[in-house]
Amino acid sequence: MDQPVSNELKQSRMTEFMKLLPLTLELAGLPKADPARPFIADQIEGRVMSVRTAFKAARALLKEVGEGIQ
User: In 3D, which of 50, 17, 16 has the Cα closest to residue 31?
Assistant: First the structure.
């Protein structure tokens, strides 16, 4: 069975996400929204998938940097 995630781990993950958010958004390369034309649900889901992929790339980059690329 899955064990519940501790509050400390949740907080750690959120902190990591927030620290990587600027890099993540740059990697995702998404244009700013026009306030007069909000996104539809499918567009939002597509943007979410782009941010998820970019976050994984940002985490991998951070890991590589931390380990020292040789």
Answer: 50
